[in-house]
Write a structure and sequence with these properties.
317 residues; alpha/beta; five-stranded mixed β-sheet; 9 helices; 28% helix
């Protein structure tokens, strides 16, 4: 089987339609289909964009028709936690709705909440659907995960997951408790590998939040300093200090596809290594919606990227 692996959509339904058309899919029998290919979505269907429910309906219809598979993104996990009552705090939820943190969470989630009646039946149905998304897809030839493939974290979660690498409500609760092994595992898979900066160092992220930890290029075992390992907003002054050897990770053993990282929309459409390709090029900030056309090749190629820019059906490779 050949796959078109599509990056973070964030409610940009029109771009999704344009990309599917560019890839040769047609809407037949209630879903987008291709005569010889299928899609794998890397997650982050909701928040930010203007077509939340249209996006979800297209993805769900393709999954149910067998013309697509999909993994969970951190925004789907956040949506589950937002809607799930806290088991030990009456009136509270796993993802806070109260105080400044709650305001930040609500702002991030507002585009989705605006299209569903918050806490109503439709909201709960979509949250239940999010729970059916696997945390990763792993095949002998390749794997797909939203942000970071971490064998040790996947191994920790495997005996706790439902069939098909799916979360249970109990595991969502455990993974929402900062400091738990389940929190670290799900955070790493869905948000990326992070390393605490040395004392006295911090930065401001793309949403204006103060951070003392950085996401690192987990796919690359060669960086030896924080500056070389850092991935995030451009122009941030990272310390050129040695990265602890415990934070250096082995390269993936097979082609691995990710989203999540808001790559520069004007940058090259190319794999980050011969075995890792990111397909998130910031559609939610005016970038293209991107797919990688995977046909089983053991080494990934820039020639296999296809992208549709906002408002245009334009192929970029």
């Amino acid at each position: 089987m050949s796959y078109d692996i599509i990056g973070d959509i964030h409610g940009h339904a029109d771009q999704l339609i344009s990309l599917l058309q560019t890839l040769g899919y047609q809407h037949r029998g209630g879903a987008w289909r291709h005569p010889s290919r299928s899609v794998i979505f890397v997650g982050d269907f909701v928040d930010r964009g203007p077509g939340q429910l249209r996006t979800l309906e297209m993805v769900r219809d393709m999954v149910e028709a067998g013309s697509a598979r999909a993994v969970m993104g951190n925004h789907e996990f956040n949506a589950i936690a937002w809607a799930t009552p806290h088991p030990a705090q009456e009136g509270a939820y796993l993802r806070s709705r109260a105080g400044p943190v709650g305001e930040k969470n609500r702002h991030q989630h507002q585009a989705f909440l605006a299209e569903v009646a918050a806490d109503g039946a439709d909201h709960q149905r979509w949250v239940a659907w999010f729970l059916e998304l696997p945390l990763w897809i792993e095949e002998p030839e390749f794997r797909v995960v939203h942000a970071c493939w971490s064998p040790q974290h996947a191994d920790h979660l495997r005996p706790l997951l439902r069939e098909g690498e799916r979360l249970s409500v109990d595991l969502v609760q455990a993974a929402s408790q900062r400091g738990s092994p389940e929190y670290e595992a799900v955070e790493t898979l869905l948000k990326g590998a992070e390393v605490e900066l040395p004392d006295g160092h911090s930065f401001t992220d793309k949403d204006g939040h103060h951070r003392t930890a950085i996401r690192i290029r987990w796919w690359d075992p060669t960086p030896t300093t924080y500056r070389a390992a850092y991935i995030g907003p451009a122009g941030v002054d990272m310390p050129d200090l040695p990265l602890p050897t415990s934070e250096r990770r082995p390269a993936p053993d097979r082609p691995t596809f990710i989203g999540h990282y808001w790559f520069d929309p004007l940058g090259p459409l190319a794999p980050v290594t011969h075995r890792v390709a990111c397909v998130d090029f910031s559609v939610a900030k005016g970038g293209p919606l991107v797919a990688y056309r995977y046909d089983g090749e053991p080494e990934l190629s820039a020639a296999k990227f296809v992208a549709v820019d906002v408002g245009a059906e334009v192929r970029r490779t």
